[in-house]
Write a structure and sequence with these properties.
The chain has 173 residues and is an alpha+beta fold. Helix content is 37%, strand content 18%. It has a 5-stranded antiparallel beta sheet, with helices on one face. Strand 4 and strand 5 form a beta hairpin. The radius of gyration is 18 Å and the shape is globular.
Length: 173
């Protein structure tokens, strides 16, 4: 069963301990004014920070992102999308990536001005807005870079085999 994300705030979350996200508790303890925007237990957490009056966002990932360098590859794709946005190759704005940090297992990016898309989609003219969002998303087909990897059927089967091998070692019966 997939757990729903939790929207928590820093005062409640300072004592949050997630063994799969080992850097989450120390990060929150060091930044008590941070706001958790979305938390998927044992998967990832998105946190909003404000520094010198400027908001930015950090996603905390599990240790497994160090294997296969998934975090740094996600950062590279974010940089490429941001550059495509700046160049006008795609018709939507992309937040400027700040960095991927192996030590804290975090991906940081600047904030974009505006309001969340969900709030726009709740308006009476949401059909028009949804159409605009769809056209903007379709513009991604114009980018000149290819993803460094794809997660398709064969990749999922390989990951499932790897996870099964770990499970068999831990619980042979």
């Amino acid at each position: 069963m997939t757990e729903a994300p939790l929207a928590l705030y820093s005062e409640q979350a300072c004592h949050l301990v997630d063994p799969v996200l080992p850097t989450l508790a120390p990060l929150l303890s060091a930044n008590p004014r941070a706001t958790i925007l979305q938390y998927w237990p044992r998967k990832r957490c998105t946190i909003r920070f404000v520094e010198d009056g400027k908001p930015y966002f950090v996603k905390v990932y599990p240790r497994k992102f160090l294997r296969k360098q998934r975090g740094s590859r996600i950062h590279d794709v974010c940089v490429a999308l941001w550059e495509a946005s700046i160049a006008g190759e795609i018709s939507f704005r992309v937040p400027k990536p700040i960095k991927w940090d192996n030590g804290s297992l975090t991906l940081s990016m600047e904030s974009l001005p505006g309001i969340p898309a969900i709030e726009i989609l709740r308006r009476p003219d949401s059909l028009h807005q949804a159409n605009r969002i769809g056209r903007a998303a379709a513009s991604i087909s114009r980018v000149r870079f290819l993803p460094s990897s794809t997660f398709d059927y064969s990749e999922q089967v390989k990951d499932s085999r790897d996870n099964a091998a770990v499970l068999i070692r831990r619980a042979p019966r």
